[in-house]
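Complex record, two chains
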Amino acid sequence: MKNWPAVKAVVGRELSKVFRQKGRLISSMVRPLIWLLVIGSGVGSMLQGEQQAGYLSFLVPGIVAMTLLFAALLSALTLVYDKEFGVMRMMLIAPIAHYWIVISKLIAATIIAMVQAVMLLVILLLLGLVEVQTALLLLIPASATAICCAAIGGLIAAWSKTLDNFAVIMNFFIFPLFFLSGALYPVSQLPEFLKYIVLINPFSYGVDLMKHAVPAATSDFSIVTDIAVLLSFSVVAIALACWRFSRESVHEPLFHRVSKKGG
Amino acid sequence: MAFKFAIQTSGLTKQYGQAVAVNKLDLNIQSGQFYGLLGPNGAGKSTTIHMLTTMTSPTFGDAFIAEQSVRDNPVAIRAAVGLVFQDSALDRMMTVDENLQFAAALYNLKPQQANERIDELLTIFGLEKKRHMKLVALSGGQRRAVDIARGVLHKPKVLFLDEPTIGLDLPNRRAIWRFVEQLRKEEGMTVFLTTHYLEEAVACDRVDFIQKGQLQYGGAPNALIRDLAAYILEIDCADTEVVNRALGPQFGEPIWEDEHLTFRVKDKDVDFSALQRSLGDAVIAMQWRKPNLNDVYLWTVCPPQTGVVS
């Protein structure tokens, strides 16, 4: 594949930047652990007996999925970051079709999300909150969920003009995506109108697929449904992000910003 | 494969809604030529470069780089051109080496090939010792040099320099031009320059002035200067009417800037000291000098009545 060196370069640049920011990697573990240990213990304390211990296990797939969602969306942010800081022009002038830039960025976002998920699973293993077998099994649905989250991030980033815009969209999407995914409570216990929202939320199927790997968690959909939705959503979202990003009008402001200065 | 023309455009036009940024541009730039497109801000210089490098598509007309259409084959065009933007496209948080290795990979250069080329370019630019420093730690001139190195890493057939010295001080501007000259000599690439520092374009083989998206006037810089005048005469007047009445019939209409009149003098043998004496108290100060490209621009693109430049 003649575009492979360029794809490898874009992915390599993203990974090296993330691994250089060790503080970012470590701090990315704080959010899920707070959710799991503080919220999980707090809500769990309202439950009785076995239910109490089971709630923490129930939360594990949702919390891992949350890590994937935040990591992938923030990594997709680099599409906007590179536009904002002008580095994107270095890629746009390269002899590759522009959609490869999006694909490369989303591959990087998926890998970065998976790295953070693995880090979290190691911590959960050390805390005794998951078994080794469960942790390893979780990696399979986590991969599919990571791709879906990267696709969501790519879709948002392709429509974002500035970092400010992206931050607003992130807040507008990220919390509804997470809270209405069944990550914190079984979908069956939600009010009827919220169930419909869960059904149209692609992230719900990622969380659900991960629940299949955790014995204590009850899933709401079949594995086939989860995979079919994740796969088809990811393909459509990535295609839309590529289409949008390849449109001249999207990156033209990058050049106009400069043209206004000089003609 | 050698091409007679590195760049050709035919009726190249770019419109943004009702606004015409570039209007029916016809260019024929020979391979190996150092070409300058000159004009004020908003004249259409950068838009022309962006069309020629496939960063924006023409509304009408077409352009060819090494005989390939920008409309039909954008990826091949991007492989054939190097573009140095007005402001840096490099990642400031990465080192010089990381930036250049990244750019090399985008152009599909093999690692050994990339390393050799980076060595070569950093030596030309005197940046060997800065190779592993972050861009943010470099001076503006050094960053610009790295930008140019990025633009020529893949040995493009045509190098586009869009206001390459904007914002740089004089020593750095001179250094950048030395690098460009050295690259041209060693690699024989066609260079397409836009600038509004007109004096920098004297080294070009040909320049064209563009205004409101249309070519106005062009030729070899020295010929344009020679054709304009032998001298430029600038006079701070106590009485502009008296000076204009005295010199107008001899030198033609001047450029008026308040009490300052500028004449072009075609005659090489004028005795300026005698002239100053003859004008007496109507003149506060008078100086004459050789013309330059700024004068060509002022006299040919901006007509005298509108030749006041802010």
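Note: The interface with chain B takes residues 2, 5-6, 8-10, 12-13, 16-17, 85-87, 89-97, 248, 251-252, 255, 258-263 of chain A (CB under 8 Å).
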